[in-house]
Structures are given as C-alpha cells and as structure tokens.
Design goal:
The chain is mainly beta. The chain has helices spanning 6-14, 75-79, 268-276, and strands at residues 29-32, 37-39, 50-52, 56-63, 84-93, 101-104, 107-130, 145-156, 161-173, 180-185, 194-197, 205-212, 220-228, 237-246, 255-257, 279-285, 291-300, 304-309, 312-325, 333-344, 347-360, 378-389, 398-407, 417-424. Strands 1, 4, 5, 7, 8, 9, 10, 12, 13 and 14 form a 10-stranded antiparallel sheet that branches. An 8-stranded antiparallel barrel has the order 16-17-19-20-21-22-23-24.
C-alpha cells in the first residue's frame, strides 16, 4: 500500500488504460506490467493463502511454446505487437511541480528510442482458482493467466536513460491489452533528469508511472510523476504528467486521423469548413449590452486525434483561427486553436471551438483589445474564445469571447482584469 492511496488505488493504477475492447471477442484479455500480491487476511478475506489482487490463486504453471495455443490465443498472437523498437519526439515540462521539487533541466525536448524485447522462451500458462472467501456469486472468474517476460528500454538520443526495467506481461480474461506500465521508485529514476526535494528533511515519497504503448502498433507513451505525503499527513500529495512521446502528433491514447479522407464515415474537414468558414455569429457585449457579430474563420491545420468511447468518440482538430467583430472593437485576432468534434453513428453531434491567446501589450496589439490598454501599466492582453455549434435540430449554438488585461509585475498565472465579454448565441 502506498500512503493514502490505499490498496485499491494501487490496483487501479496498474490497471490503467486496459478497459478498451478488442475486435476478437475471445481475446478479451487484460495486460498488466507487474503482479501485486496480497495476503487475504490483510485485504479483508479469511484465507491464509496468498492471491493476486484480482483474488485469484495460481494452482499450476505450464511452459508454452511461442506459437502454442492457449485459452486466450497463442503467446505470439497476444504479445507480439508489444515487441520491437521505435523512435518518436520526446518532450518534458516540470513547471507544475516547482513548489516542492527542483527539477533539472526543468523542460526540454529530445528523440526517444523505445525498445521492448520479449523472451519468447518464457511464455507460460497459469491455471487459477478463486479463494473460498465470500459468497460464491461474488468470487472472481479465475480462468487462467497467459504470461511472458520482457525487458523495456527507453533511451534518449543523448544517451540518457529514461527507464530500463524487466517486466512480466500478463493476459487474463475480461479486458483487452493496451499498454505496459512501469512503476519506478526514486532509486530507479533514469539519468535523463535530476529531481530533488526542496526541503532536505521532507518525508515525501516520489515515484514515476511510465506507460508504454505497443511499439509494434504505435510509438507513444507518457511519464507521470507522483509526489506523495507520508501517512497521516493532511495532504495526500499530487501527481502530474512530466513527459510524453508520440510519433503521430497525438497523445499516446489517441489515434491519428488524416483530415484529407473520411474517418468513421465522416469528412471532418468538410464538417469544420461548413460550420466555421467565414461564419457570422450574433452576440452581445456584457458591458453596455450592445449587439454585434463575431466574424470567424477556422481552417484545419494538421492531423486530427481521435479518442473513442462507447457509441462513438471525439476527434480533436487543430485549426488556425481568425476573428473580428462587426463593430471593430476586436480586429485581426489570429491564433492556433482546436475544434473537438464529437461523433457517433457516422455523424457529428457537436463541434466545440477553443482558442486561448495572449499578446504582449504594444502599439501593434492595442487595436485588438477593447478598450485599449495602457501599456505603461498593462503587460499582456488575453483572449479566451469558446463556441459550441450543434446540428440544426440540436441544442442552440452558444459561446463567449472574453478579453483580459494583465498588469505589469503580476504573476503570469493570474487574471488581472476582465475587460469585457462578448456572449455568443442566438
């Protein structure tokens, strides 16, 4: 058990990302990178035997050839896509951890080589049974494990090591394999980065959770840093993403979607163009209540990234946005934003446009702010644009464009003054 997270929290962490379905119903299996054991009296059970954290006890182990058939398929069919070598851009940023840690270098970019070597001679089948604790209908389905040993190496082009670790890949019933998870203690941190506690006597515990997606299918993953307080502390700790890598331009859990061809039966490029090409959106200023319109143009730029969920999904599309208001209070506002297109049944149900932009206060940016800021006291101008567009028979379109000013000498993280807001909609 790790601090206040508890046994179930740790179980949930090693099961992360392993809930999606697979195209073959008989391969509904789950991948975990390590086995955490628990004596059932300590976990609330009544047996003195030791089971894994699914409540299952191994009764026998049988070696398997790489191509031999098991209940969940051959080891080759189940695990081969995790093996191989790939390269992808790697970047990190530790700014969120600055209150308690010193990280050097605090941010940066490199190229990462991910290598997963599977020992094909180590494949084995483990028969299981459930421990006799609790009502029969509540006992887990202990229908066997398919396992193989592997080694994972994550190395930057500079030669610095992000992680090197041996793992056991395990497949069981009910869920599909999606990734390898490595949990590293402080002593196992690679030499790619230096992390030190600002308080020398601090009792905080640090570890990294690294997720590696199958290198035979995509080159992607992430590094998460966890800062945990000692047991009994009022604060349980924090965690955040420290680094990630991807060869598709999408986050590791998402699928790259080229916008020049239909995806899931939908032409997302045309959907964006028809909704946001020279669109005129009615609105009204919060201060004064004057009516005007926002003239908006959004052009897709790059590759979309799809995330799937039950019954559909969402494609996040990078767009170049240009906006002005008909009353000329805002002119020539341009920046790179995103449009989230929620879809299902081969149609788009909503398009969500988002743009957040800051500009330094100068004579060149003053015309874009309303009212004009005094650059002697104002350092930056901020714009926050959000708009949801629905099908004609759906909910009313709605959104807003907020204009902010930052005073000089004020921390960049805090809004200083909401100048005005244009409420968008019918």
């Amino acid at each position: 058990m790790r601090g206040s997270e508890g046994h179930m929290g740790f179980m949930n962490r090693i099961r992360m990302g392993s809930t999606s379905s697979t195209s073959s119903a008989r391969w509904r299996i789950a991948l975990i990178a390590a086995t955490v054991v628990c004596g059932f009296p300590a976990c609330g059970g009544s047996s003195s035997e030791t089971a894994d954290n699914y409540g299952c006890l191994v009764t026998s182990t049988t070696p398997l050839a790489w191509t031999a058939t098991s209940v969940w398929g051959t080891p080759e069919q189940v695990f081969a896509r995790f093996a191989g070598t790939c390269q992808a851009p790697f970047d990190w940023n530790s700014s969120w951890s600055g209150y308690s840690l010193s990280v050097a270098p605090p941010s940066g970019a490199d190229t990462l080589t991910a290598t997963v070597d599977i020992d094909t001679t180590s494949a084995r089948w483990k028969a299981q049974r459930a421990l006799p604790s609790g009502p029969l209908e509540m006992r887990p389905a202990c229908d066997g494990l398919l396992e193989v040993d592997a080694s994972v190496s994550l190395v930057l082009s500079s030669g610095a090591v992000v992680a090197e670790k041996k793992v056991t890949l395990s497949a069981r019933s009910a869920q599909a394999p999606t990734l390898i998870t490595l949990s590293l203690s402080e002593a196992q941190f690679g030499n790619w980065i230096s992390i030190a506690k600002k308080k020398v006597a601090s009792a905080e515990t640090l570890w990294m959770d690294i997720q590696v997606y199958p290198v035979g299918a995509s080159c992607a993953g992430s590094v998460r840093l966890v800062i945990e307080q000692p047991p009994g502390d009022a604060q349980s700790g924090i965690s955040g993403r420290l680094a990630s890598w991807s060869d598709s331009g999408c986050a590791e859990e998402k699928t790259a979607v080229p916008l020049d061809t239909p995806y899931q039966g939908i032409d997302f490029h045309d959907a964006v163009a028809s909704a946001f090409s020279e669109a005129t959106i009615p609105g009204r200023w919060s201060l004064g209540g004057e009516a005007t319109s926002l003239i908006l143009n959004a052009t897709p730029n790059g590759v979309g990234c799809a995330e799937h969920f039950f019954g559909g999904g969402e494609v996040t599309i990078p767009v170049v946005i240009a906006a002005s208001t008909a009353d000329k209070r805002i002119q020539g506002l341009t920046g790179t934003g995103t449009i989230g297109a929620t879809f299902g049944d081969a149609r788009v149900s909503v398009l969500r446009l988002d743009l957040y932009l800051q500009q330094p206060c100068s004579s060149n940016t003053l015309p874009a702010a309303y009212p004009p800021a005094d650059c002697a006291t104002m350092e930056r101008i901020g714009f926050d644009l959000h708009f949801n567009r629905y099908p004609p028979q759906g909910s009313p379109n709605s959104g807003y464009l907020s204009v902010y000013q930052y005073q000089r000498g004020v921390d960049a993280g805090g809004w200083v003054d909401l100048v005005d807001e244009l409420v968008l909609g019918p």
